[in-house]
Amino acid sequence: MSVTDQLLENNEKYAAEFEGPLPLPPARGVAVLACMDARLDVYGILGLEEGEAHVIRNAGGVVTDDELRSLAISQRLLGTREIILIHHTDCGMLTFTDQELTTALTDETGIEPAWTAHAFTDLDEDVRGSVEKIQTDPHIPHTDAVRGFVFDVATGRLREVV
Amino acid sequence: MSVTDQLLENNEKYAAEFEGPLPLPPARGVAVLACMDARLDVYGILGLEEGEAHVIRNAGGVVTDDELRSLAISQRLLGTREIILIHHTDCGMLTFTDQELTTALTDETGIEPAWTAHAFTDLDEDVRGSVEKIQTDPHIPHTDAVRGFVFDVATGRLREVV
């Protein structure tokens, strides 16, 4: 039995106790952008309930065009006003360089990736840069409540960077 | 008090009961790619625990270069082997067209977005297309366990599309 099949069995239990549907716009008007890391249960970390916040995640919790797209849609079409950015300690993105991964993939497949990895060497610096990218984007209208944090995977605690 | 400040208070409670740290690689070897919609608590829907799966999310749960980046990093650097893709009923991405949003943003700001919205008109079709994009990407090595679902926001149940 694949892991996916096991998780689908879990979904049967979830559906059996499910109370829905909830409204489409996030009830608390917040969008969270966090790393995809398996140890970050964003709902748990922030005490969120279903229906309260948009959750955007990717490798590193970085800000590329795709995150600017999601944030613009979140604010303009679905009314969110605050943004919470979360990086975390012990992140995989601290363990390699963009060039290393590009070279490895190109050597192996003969095709250079269309993307760069967006690895980083300093968590706080990348949080600050990510917040700045959001605040200077012309298509994200509400940027007075953009705050950036580092989640400590050893303590479960968020530390504010900016 | 901002919503962010309220959520930070929740984090104090989470940290007080936190037991960590867990290892970096996802224990169940799965990456989930889902829509950012506030009603999708991916950990709840799939019965996931902290440390078990990468979770990637964006507006629509679509596959752009940034999701291919995250999935490639997930598989190549952190050992995941299965991919679960989740779209959902009542999705905001069914309510407008790419051109409508591009025109509105350009008219309002004078600057055309660098991204397209990736709106869609048919959930199942977009799930199928997204799975195909992943399966044909040269930099994602494990594509024999890529499965696509639609989450029903009224019942809490996942329906398999492909």
Largest interface: A-B, 89 and 89 residues
Give the number of domains of chain A: 1
Strand content of chain A: 15-25%
The parts of chain A where pLDDT drops under 50 for at least 5 residues are none
* CATH H level, superfamily name of chain A: Carbonic anhydrase
Count of helix runs of chain A: 5
- Briefly note the CATH topology name of chain A: Beta-carbonic Anhydrase, Chain A
The Rg value of chain A, from CA coordinates, equals 18 Å
Helix and strand sequence of chain A: HEHEHEHHEE
Name of the CATH class of chain A:
Alpha Beta
Helix content of chain A: 25-40%
The 3D shape of chain A can be described as: globular
How do the strands line up in the largest sheet of chain A?
2-1-3-4-5
Walkthrough of the structure:
The structure is a homodimer of 162-residue chains. The first copy, chain A, has 162 residues and is of the alpha/beta class. Chain A has one domain: 3-Layer(aba) Sandwich (Beta-carbonic Anhydrase, Chain A), CATH 3.40.1050. The first copy, chain A, is 36% helix and 17% strand. Chain A has a 5-stranded mixed β-sheet, covered by helices on one side. The longest helix of chain A is centred in the first third of the chain and has 14 residues. Chain A is globular and about 50 Å long. In chain A, 47% of the residues are buried. At the A-B interface, helix 1, helix 2, strand 2, helix 3 and helix 4 of A face helix 1, helix 2, strand 2, helix 3 and helix 4 of B.
